[in-house]
Amino acid sequence: MAQQIEKVGVLGGGLMGHGIAQVAAEAGYQVVLREVDEATLAKGVAKIEKQLARAVEKGKSTQEDADAVRGRIFGTAHYRELADCDLVIEAITESLPLKLEMWREVDEIVKPEAVFATNTSSLAVIDQAAVTGRPERFVGLHYFNPAQVMKLVEVVRCVTTSQEAFDTALEFARSQGKLAIPTKDKAGFIVNRLLVPYLLDAIRAYEEGVGSVDEIDEAMKAGAGHPMGPLTLADFVGLDTLGSICDVLFEEFRERRFARPPMLRKMLAAGWFGRKSGMGFYDYSGDAPQPNPAF
Ligand SMILES: NC(=O)c1ccc[n+]([C@@H]2O[C@H](COP(=O)([O-])OP(=O)(O)OC[C@H]3O[C@@H](n4cnc5c(N)ncnc54)[C@H](O)[C@@H]3O)[C@@H](O)[C@H]2O)c1
Predict the structure, then answer these.
(1) Could you report the per-residue pLDDT of 102-116, keeping only the tens digit for each?
(2) Catalytic pick among 121, 122, 244, 292
(3) CATH annotation of 7-184
(4) Edge-first strand listing for the sheet containing 138-143
């Protein structure tokens, strides 16, 4: 039987965390959003406010509803505000050491009956569950970017997850209007196991001169019916996050298809993280994205 969820903690207000917080508040949950400091928190909250304002402008929501959603989100830079949450979802940087350090602190503070969830794209759920004192109450809740729009949530059961915690996570995802698909705790779950090699292959195709950045993207849109080309999608995911995901998958499976292409490494060294940093395969400084002029 699923546990009752009223208050949801979200750790990280970046690309994914702000969206997860917004979706939970839109479904009627009280949300505590924790970021590392006030300045970073303000950026995450501003993104939510912008999305809510846009929905009102487009007539998809009323001002009253948007205000109510905003009113259900409480931002903080302190872990202690998460103490009475029924469910805590982490969407912090894709780094196992950082996630473990965070869970050790959060586990001490949050009430013992609360369920913990990770939004990791690639790390094994069990590795995070095992550092908490509640491995049976630990699941994966893997949202897709942007969380406000994408229908799927992969609900991941690790070896220690209890039926009750798993049912709680499934029901929570469905209560937000999501399609909840159960998956096993195998690195990359379903979608990234298939999608990441494709994105990396697009980077390798560009490296090998098969086509230009926009030719590769336009070809996949027109030829495969994809809504977005792979290099645009890589920028959208975040090249740093893509790099971390492929490293984890490579470490796990030792297959070339998951190996980080040299070009990705060099782009990250240059500080080009994709759309979020303003530069990736495309330059986002103008009105419309243009292929990176350095290429
Ligand atoms: N980018 C994607 O398309 C995508 C999709 C699904 C899942 N994910 C996963 O979601 C997670 C977050 O990815 P993202 O793309 O949002 O990254 P991001 O870099 O945009 O955001 C991460 C945020 O976490 C914050 N943070 C770091 N440590 C923290 C802590 N201890 N407490 C609170 N906040 C902390 C950072 O300040 C940053 O704002 C990763 O595990 C990633 O694999 C990403």
Answers:
(1) 999 999 999 999 999
(2) 121
(3) 3.40.50.720
(4) 73-76, 30-34, 7-11, 87-90, 115-118, 138-143, 152-157, 179-184
